[in-house]
Amino acid sequence: MSAFSPLLDLLHQPFLAPLVLSSLLLLPLAIYRVLHRPPSPTRKARTRKFWFTMAVLVGPVWLLTPISYLAFGWGCLASLGWGGFSWPRGKGARIASGFGVGWASLEVLFSLIHLYLAYRIQPVTPPLTADPAQLRQIFLRVLQANLQRANHELVSEDDELSSLPEENLEEVLEEVEGALDIKHGGKGIERLEEDDERAVAFRERLRTWFYHADWDSLQRDNILDWISWSTFNSSLEHTLSIPAYKTVLLDALELIERRTGKILPPGRNESIRVIRLTLDKVNVRHRPLILYTLTWLLNQLCSVTYWSKGVKRVKFGEIEYLVHFPDDWTPEKGRKKAASSPILYIHGLGFGFLQNHFVISTLLRDYSSHPILVPIQPAISMTLPSRRHLVPFSRPETIRSLSLALDHYKFYSPDSDDHSGGVTIFSHSNGSTSHAWVLKDIPAAIRRSCFVDPVVFCLWEGDVCYNFVYRDPSTAIELLMSFFIGSELGIANTISRNFDWSSNTLFFEDIVNGTDASRTAFFLGGRDAIVHAERVKHYLEHHGVSKGLHYDPRGSHGEALLGKTLDKVLRWVGGEDHQDDGTTSTST
User: Fold this and answer.
1) Which domain holds residue 33?
2) Residues 572, 577: Cα–Cα separation, whole Å
3) pTM for the complete prediction?
């Protein structure tokens, strides 16, 4: 008997054949396919936990589709009786084989559909058509971040100016801006020295958009590529072809040279790659149908659990919400008592209810005296059957829907002089983008704000974009985030084709009562793998945030939604640390 006879016998079995072949031939291919990225100068050595996670979780999940192709091929050969393959004779084995091949056929079909959808989302979105003057003002606000206090005052005087007569407001603002322009050579930004610590810090953060390339290696056209994308969502060639945009572009370049303390040499360094999120190829990695199916089933199970606790699904505009109301709640009670104020929880990217089940369940159990609303977001929750999986909710849709919901439940009245109404918005990670939209468009609807792992601050520094989309994973958590979340079809489409830089960026001046610890709280983790928490902490402290800033130097992204930290977050959200007279009680 040949030494290979046992192996040859295995290859004639319905399920062991594809498994054996895949283990021998496809595991290296799976690892290569998951890890393959263009060479990166910042690639770090991969940890042992990274390789363990790749071997026992990510690699096998990716392999399910190639194995399905093999099983489908075996089923075809067995049905035709070719190559010595045949269906097993036993009834149980035959049923099992039929089910296995049937599911493999669905996986094969799904892989083709997934491939088509991944191709369909690749075309870039049209260039922005915003007002050039408005874009310049936004760019100025970015460059003025963390400069001298005098510069900050230009963009944070709303409280003082709001008391002026409306007909005088524009005139006064023009005088203030004119005075600043005169002070800084008509550009609104002082020219820093090359060794000024503010210039050094800004160069260090800005080079993230160029894969951390050395600043001295950058040339003017490299920077112009980035400005053209970040300002107009357009290629440099297209932006230069429009005179008004060209003026803004060249003006922005000069402002950057002033802020960084360095004059850039002309030309382009062809070896430098620039991150242009909405113009670059969408990074989508295939995942099997079984993963989407299990996610959907578990989310449905979560929905049944919420239904048993009195939660209803209500639709306002295009967005559906989980809604829970206490039996004895009234709008008057919600306005008067912190322990009865409405809570709006906006979750981040991932697996939807499944990923946020602990948070939602805890809110329903321990904070049942509050009305609770949770918007359902198919585009960022792996909800493939939904028609909105590849059409994320836009800013206008979100604001219209929330306005309808808040008005319907009388959480606040836009025409009322009573400012005691409104909701407590509790947002996590990407949920802070919708939170930012509400702050900008209907700030009167917000009573209190809680940001957990927010991604909207310091977006101009590039850490969130680079860490979530472009970084080569080197740790287990980075690998899990990259494969299971960052490269999922709907999430990748949301981030890479529906990202509005100016709309999603939140400046501190846009936050209602941002320095009042009883009205606004920020929770950050020093080991956050997405947000550069130390930089965000510095930004918030620079703007006067103190007691409202909760910083855990050992905390990671999402850890604030677990254990004792979640208890602290929910105590704040639920008003247990808040008194109606505006004071804050001590919490641990």
Assistant:
1) 5-120
2) 5
3) 0.85
